[in-house]
Amino acid sequence: MGRHTLEYPKTKTNTVRRKSDRANYALEAIHSLINSSPLLNVAFNTPDNDSPFPTILPMIGHMGSFDRPSADLGDPLDLYLHGYVSSRMMNLARSSSSSSSSSSSSSQDKEQEQEQGLPVCISASHVDALILATSPFNHSYNYRSATLFGHATLVTDDAEKLYAMELITNGVVPDRWRTSRQPPTPAEMQSTSILRVSFSSGSAKFRDGGVHDDRHDLEDADAQGKVWTGVLPVFSRIGEPIPTEYNKVETPANVTDFVREYNKQNEEYVLAAAKK
Which residue spans within the chain are E strands per DSSP? Predict the structure, then answer.
């Protein structure tokens, strides 16, 4: 019997309304997109700020589960984000955690505490192609986008903090944590804070395929004789490694393999999506 595909429940917060046929609520699809994004947009409100605008920060993070390290992308996961210990977001999360602790009973579990953390919205997106139609109103992108809604709390357990640091580092380049200088110094540990984001809902939206022209444009011989239509694939690529002036080590296999596989997989996906 096949594995059941888990999805985030549809709510008024995460339900896709415009072009709902492009929506995807599967945990695996959403978590994969988050983990493949070099930067995540993290939005939160600052209640002590006189500005009416929300704050949006580019941050580095990775999905995982400290309690269940073997969990895959199709399972419920947390997002770990790292930042400077005294940054505004870390201070807000610290305050939210302190407020939760003081107002919670000792019997509350971690999930209940996380729901009282700092509310955040996480988004990520990839552009895979530029779609050029006969009319500018039918131009589009091939894209992958995801949005998650949850609550952020500060990680205080040292073992979980190290787990998250390794997870995030290896999310940049596989096996980079082990192949870099270890262990972290006390100063490095003290200057870095980790947030754990537990999600209550999320959704993704994908557009693939080619040009979708209106029938009247397809039947317009004059327009078809003047306007170029087609798809411009957009590839995200990593270039050849450039060592530092003081480097004395050959480029390790985990780096060269990662560059090759990243470029290969990205190009294959983009070209396949354009042909759907």
Answer: 23-24, 40-44, 55-59, 61-64, 78-84, 118-132, 140-154, 192-207, 230-233
Asked if 161 and 61 count as a contact pair (C-beta separation under 8 A), the reply is no
CATH architecture label of 20-128+141-214: Roll (2.30)
Name the residue among 114, 138, 155 with its Cα closest to residue 207. Answer: 138
Task: State how far the Cα of 161 lies from the Cα of 194, in Å rounded to an integer.
Answer: 6
Q: Are 161 and 218 in contact (CB under 8 A)?
A: no
- Please answer whether residues 126 and 33 qualify as being in contact, where contact means their C-beta atoms are separated by less than 8 angstroms: yes
Q: Could you report the per-residue pLDDT of 49-101, keeping only the tens digit for each?
A: 677 888 999 999 999 999 999 999 999 999 999 999 888 889 888 887 666 55
Domain boundaries, the chain: 20-128+141-214
